[in-house]
Amino acid sequence: MRLHALLIVRDEADIVAQCLRDAAGWCDHIYVYDTGSTDGSWDLVQDLAVELKQIVPYKREEVWFQDGLRGAIFERYRSRASDGDWFVRLDADEFYPVPPKRFIEERVRSGESVVHNQPYEFKLTCEEVEAYSSDASILADRQRPIQERRRFLIPLRYSEPRLFRYRRSMCWLPNRPWPFNSGFTARERIPVQHYPHRDPIQMRRRFHLRNIMRRDMRIENPTAIAHWDFTNWRDEVVKSSDKRLVFWQPGAPLPPFHWSDHLAPVWKRSLQWALYRTCVRALDATRPTFPPQFAPTPLPMDTIRELNNYPELSA
Question: What is the pTM of this model?
Fold first, then answer.
């Protein structure tokens, strides 16, 4: 069994190296697609690929982000996979405290072939923001691992697929976030540490980027990125006294949860179980193949210029 990770990157230079080094400890191949970074992320990926052979830089191009782009990476590299391998959705601001290979071997039951995440979202607090005296102090603090810098988390009930077992007949179109008939959902969720808000410099840049992308993408598709509805980065900063927060010590186990919101009703799971055991490959044969002419939508030149001329915003 080998693991293949699909990673889409855009302006994650403060964390992408740590993410890739961590993933290289449990993953056999990490395929990286950069959608137009201007902060040096792509250079870091290429440099690390020389050191860590698991990293495979796919390409960098200035295109609209969409989850379905992972389908394009999948189509490009699926010939490297064999039946029984697993693909992993990897984000540059996420870490797997339980290595996925070990999780699959120890906690995925026979017949289960899709694993959802149990997200632990780490937050930046008002007190942590106030402790920074300048942008220089933030840059100095970045020399430490993110797990040492951000200690407050919120466990989320929301869950989404993160791993699926590969079969040669499966189909993944570029307008879909996940393959058709991707698999029978595992009961256990894999823990994922998520660090979307790391420090004021990163948050200023993130909100600047996403507000531009949100504005322009809504012209094309008003519902495409509703989860990017950001205005001011400070709206996402919380007080350490917030009752939702759990303080976490690096090296300590994450608080366990056994939510089952990601599971279908029993009657539906029974049907899915029968489907995946008997005729899923026949169903795969009815799906369309990946369009050979597919090309991601390029960013307009005006948007590229605006993004490339990112201002150093004041806090």
Answer: 0.93
